[in-house]
Amino acid sequence: MRDPARPGAGNVPAVLPLETSVPRPYHGAMLDTRTVKAFADGFGGDVVRPGDPKYDAARAVWNGLVDRRPGLVVLPRGTADVVAALRFAREQDLVVAVRGGGHSIPGLSTCDDGIVIDLSRMRGAKIDPARRTAVCAGGALLSELDNAAQAVGLVCPVGVVSHTGVAGLTLGGGMGRLQRKFGLTIDNLRAVDLVTADGRVVRASADENPDLFWGVRGAGANFGVATSFEYGLHPLEHPITHGTVVHPIERAGELAQLFSETAEAGPDELWLGFYVRLALPAENFPPGIGGRPIAAVSVLHCGPPREAERDLAILRAFGPPVADSIEPKPHLVAQRLADEASAWGHRFYMKSAFLRGLPDELVDLTVQHAHGMPAGAGGEFGIWSWGRAIAEVPEDATAFTGRTAAYWMGAEIQWDDPALDGPSRGWARAGMADVARFATRGRYVNDVAESREDARAIYGDEKYERLVGLKRAWDPDNVFRMNQNIRP
Ligand code: FAD
């Protein structure tokens, strides 16, 4: 999702009540000062309470729609602090929210009244160039992994906005523009260290707790606080080729056809996204385009630039574009291009699905809905090429669902005016409802903007039952419930 083709990112309904599987009192608001002081005095990290000057900054999350007031925000500096925070939370019967990068679309890394265990003091990525591995701390951002890996000519396939958290992205799956070549982020995950609900520090990998490792790769927010992630890396030493060609909306159908043919015939190195959105008046388009819908194809080719030029020639021959920004550039430049448009604090909502194919009717529907976007909001339909290395991993190898689809599709919308909350959500919901008949099985858990979504519908019956077994084994009291929740 969220490629530079889009005007920005967006967010979630702060107002949705969060679901709890067992009714429990939210005691955080009632924590007395002496109890908190006793905890804080022995805690290695920082503790922020309501009324502290840093409280409003500490409770803010990426999505401007989310406005929750935790009873306590704690910022551990290491695993021992995480264990201590979790022990305190359980003693005080607090709802626990775990925060990595804070980019959860429904705001699941914060809560009202309970405790937020914010890992933003546990940052950094260490690379072993000889083994081609990276170890990231539980609060690391994608930029840290990207920068450290590229400094030695290596790369891990992650997402497309560099301030996203490594933790949440990985625990849900990890989509991006290198995935047709290298697989999902979880397909490159070697091991995760977790603090479990009972305060144990465990490792999940193919050799240690392999059952837990299965569940962590797609439903990972349910099983513990991840304090470190180990990834396998791949060589990427030359510039990648990246950018977007924009065409008038009247050519959307033909462009979609070309997009799907190129995705099918192109190499694993080639990622493509087809977009329908409104051209913003502020964008530097020729007269007559601003404010009208446009169709675009974004690409990232991670092969040598000469091969990219050859593989993209058909796209270049499509006819004179309204704009064309495709060119070789350092991978890190492409990774940061959407950062500003997806900055913290805007309001955002999205819905997504995996698609069987790309029929003309679906493309027509996106064009119709693009005309109906609420004025003042920036939204888009994005359709990503899928498959290849993603589909080479068997569907039942991880908890992630949706490997066998032909495309991923999302409707994303971002706005700032609270008066647009209803119309913006409505726009994305209506657009995706209209194309639901073209969807295939699977849902990407990290795209689910509703905090009350039924996790069974995301994972399907078989995987959900297996996840329930894991939840009963590792978190029978459902301490980790601020997620798309597997009920023990
Ligand atoms: P957080 O809000 O911190 O956490 C998300 C969930 O993970 C919460 O349930 C939280 O409790 C849990 N969690 C966080 N850290 C830990 C931890 N250390 N241990 C255990 N549980 C933890 N996804 C993609 O796949 N590809 C993309 O290109 C992409 N782009 C995005 C761009 C933007 C601007 C945004 C907002 C989201 C994007 N996403 C993308 C979705 C993203 O993967 C999810 O929002 C993800 O959950 C964010 O991770 P985080 O650590 O920042 O989130």
The percent of residues in helical segments reads: 25-40%
Shape: globular
Query: In CATH's first tier, which class of the largest domain applies?
Result: Alpha Beta
Total number of beta strands: 20
- The CATH level-2 architecture of the largest domain is identified as 3-Layer(aba) Sandwich
| Total separate domains | 3
Overall mean pLDDT: 93
List ligands, each type once: flavin-adenine dinucleotide
Work out the helix count.
14
Structural class call reads alpha+beta
Unreliable spans are 4-27
From the 3D structure, determine the CATH topology of the largest domain: Vanillyl-alcohol Oxidase, Chain A, domain 3
Quick synopsis:
By secondary structure, this protein is an alpha+beta fold.
